[in-house]
Amino acid sequence: MRHLLSTRDLDRATAVGILDVAEDMADVAHREIKKLPTLRGKTVINLFFEDSTRTRTSFELAAKRLSADLITFSAKGSSVSKGESLKDTAQTLAAMGADAVVIRHSASGAAQTLARSGWIDAAVLNAGDGTHEHPTQALLDAFTMRRRLHGSASRGKDLDGLRVTIVGDILHSRVARSNVWLLQALGATVNLIAPATLLPVDTSGWPATIGFDLDTAIDDDPDVIMMLRIQSERMNAAFFPNAREYSRQWGLDDERLARLRPDTMVMHPGPMNRGLEISANAADSARSTVLEQVANGVSIRMAVLYLLLSGSVKP
Predict the structure, then answer these.
(1) 54 is in an annotated binding site
(2) CATH no. for residue 40?
(3) In this structure, are 113 and 224 located in the same domain?
(4) Which pTM does this prediction carry?
(5) Does residue 172 have a pLDDT over 70?
(6) Does the keyword Transferase apply (predicted)?
C-alpha cells in the first residue's frame, strides 16, 4: 500500500492481511515494554482539522508504540485560523520530513486531494474526511467482529456469512460508508436501517440492503447491530421530529436489547449519545464491544502505519 484513503481500495486478501498484522500488533499490548523498534527514524504527522478523541489518541499511541517520531497538529491555535490553505499547511509540515500524514478534515475528499496532488511525498492515511470515509474505523470494527467470532484463531479468517445491521444517521456517516464496502469485501452482508431523511439520496450502488424499521431488522436476527451517532453538527435542517421520537423508533433501548440473542454484538463507533441512539444498559452490556473497539483501534492503526512505512512483511 502507498496510501490508505478508502476501504473501496481493499480487496479481501489485503483486508485480511491488515487484520492479521493487527493481531501481531495486539500482542505488543501484553508485553512488559509495549514498544517495537519498527518505525524508529520515521516521522508521523497527525493533521487534524476536526475535533477527535479516539482516533487522534489511538494514532498517537500507535506511532509511539512503533517508535516513530510524532508531531500532532491541531487546526485550532495554528495558522489555519489565519487563513492558511490545506496545501500550504501540508507542505509546511512535510518540509519537516514527514514520512506519513494522518489527516482528518471536514471536507469530503481532502485525504484524496492530499495524496494525489503531488504537494507532499509522504504516505497519507485518511482519518475521516467529511461524510466520505473513515477506513481505519471500519478496519477496527471488522477486527473486533472477527475476534469475537474466532478468538485466538482469528488469523487468516474473514467474515463470511456474518449479518451486520447498521442503524441511524447513515447520511452523514463516513463510518457507515467505509463499513459497507469493507464488510462486503470480507464476506459479510449489510443491512442499513434509518429514517428516510437520514439515508443518502442514491444508494443503488451500495452492497447493502436498505430498511426503515428497526424492530423488523431485530426480528431478522442480526449477528451484529451497529448504532451510529446522530451527527447534529453536520445537520442544517430538521431530519426528524425530535430526540424523543428518534429514540422511540430507531434507538436501541432496553426492550430491543432483550430481544437480541445473547451473542449478538452491539457496536458503536463513538462518541455515544446515551439515551438517544443507545441506552446505557445496551452500551454497558456483555454484548457491547464499545471498549474493545477503542482498544482494537490502536492495534489496527499500528498495523496500517507499519504496512505503509515498512512494507508487507510481518514484524
Answers:
(1) yes
(2) 3.40.50.1370
(3) no
(4) 0.93
(5) yes
(6) yes
